[in-house]
Specification:
Layout (H helix, E strand, L loop, with lengths): L3 H22 L11 H22 L5 H23 L6 H24 L1 H28 L24 E6 L11 E2 L2 E5 L3 E6 L8 E2 L17 E5 L6 E6 L7 E7 L5 E5 L17 E4 L3 E7 L8 E4 L3 E7 L8 E6 L3 E6 L7 E6 L1
Helix pairs in contact: 1-2, 1-3, 4-5
Length: 362
């Protein structure tokens, strides 16, 4: 009979190892769990050693208990195995499966021979060992001399990562000081409502490292990696769909916040009417001349006149403040600007300084 004192922990460790390897290499695990890859593999191989030792100690058991245990372990292994082969995104799944089979099949054969035909175990084991060593040596040697030369690392120039330019208004979020302490505020604001296309910018004001990691997909949607004190992480929301996204800190899982992406709103329109180039008392040159909007609103100025105009922040005749400037707008041209700060902003046309308008941002 088999030695169940060895077989039971062997089967358990093997099942745990198989599950761990699958989770790690299937793209499910992320951040600090990636460091468990080696441990899960080691656990699985330890389980195989215990399992083999139990079988060799007393032979393959045919009892109902052994059959039931084997069925459970096979179900677990096959379930995770099917998931790993069909549902994961790793490029190394086939390689891992091949290595495991290359180890398992000779081990099973040698174990069977040692149990049933002991005189053949040593020569067959020697042949398998020599064949394995020969295969490894040839693989390494061909890696240096074959046309592929896969054992020689390619020399590639290291490029400095270019800073991604913001494509929209910036929404600032701060990782607060002492946010790693349970119960303390962490991300400010805790719920950030952002218009699709804006850029979200997280700044770590704490003295310890944090991350900004999407809960969905364990960082597949966005992940800042390690952010030390003062580091900034920017996220362009253009490619994110409208909806709610929970995110957390990989190092401190109790730090949880929500990013809400809203659909971009249609710009508020201001029209430069026909004949605006002619100065007349009581005439409106930007319609409406004064407009009240909320912070984050985009205004689109449309030139409906038959001559060129500008939309230039400041006061006439030549006091442009540089906040925004459409430059030359030909007939039918459109200029858009998003107001993110509260205040009153005057603007005018540099070609026709009597044309003035005002934007009040709340």
């Amino acid at each position: 009979m088999s030695n169940w004192d060895l077989m039971m922990p062997g089967m358990g460790l093997t099942a745990i190892g198989v599950a761990g390897v699958t989770l790690s290499y299937a793209g499910i695990a992320h951040t600090f769990i990636d460091g468990m890859h080696a441990l899960t593999g080691l656990t699985m191989f330890m389980g195989l050693i215990f399992l083999a030792a139990g079988i060799l100690d007393g032979g393959v058991s045919t009892s109902n208990r052994a059959k039931a245990t084997t069925l459970v372990i096979l179900s677990i292994a096959l379930g995770f195995g099917m998931f790993a082969l069909t549902m994961n995104t790793s490029n190394y799944t086939i390689t891992i499966a091949g290595i495991l089979m290359a180890i398992a099949f000779p081990a099973i054969i040698i174990a069977y021979l040692a149990m049933k035909h002991p005189p053949f175990a040593k020569p067959i084991g020697s042949i398998v060992g020599i064949a394995a060593a020969t295969g490894i040596i040839m693989w390494v040697a061909l890696g240096f001399v074959s046309p592929d030369t896969y054992m020689i690392p390619e020399q590639t120039a290291i490029e400095e990562p270019a800073e991604i330019a913001s494509t929209g208004p910036i929404f600032a979020i701060e990782i607060l000081k002492d946010s790693a302490v349970e119960g303390n505020p962490d991300y400010d604001p805790d719920v950030a409502i952002v218009t699709q296309g804006d850029t979200v910018e997280w700044t770590n004001a704490d003295s310890v490292a944090h991350t900004v990691t999407s809960s969905e997909g364990f960082g597949e949607l966005f992940d800042s990696s390690t952010m030390n004190q003062g580091d900034v992480f920017k996220l362009d929301t253009t490619k994110l769909e409208v909806g709610k996204y929970e995110y957390t800190c990989s190092f401190h899982p109790l730090m949880v916040a929500t990013l809400v992406i809203e659909a971009a709103k249609e710009p508020t329109k201001v029209v430069i009417p026909e004949g605006a180039a002619i100065s007349e008392d009581g005439k409106i040159y930007y319609d409406p001349e004064t407009i009240d909007i909320a912070s984050g609103t985009t205004i689109a100025w449309e030139n409906a006149d038959n001559t060129v105009h500008t939309v230039t922040s400041g006061k006439p005749p030549a006091d442009a403040d540089g906040m925004f400037d459409s430059e030359m707008m030909t007939a039918g041209g459109i200029f858009e600007y998003t107001f993110t700060d509260a205040g009153t902003f005057d603007y005018y046309c540099t070609y026709h300084p009597w044309m003035v308008g005002t934007v009040n941002v709340e």
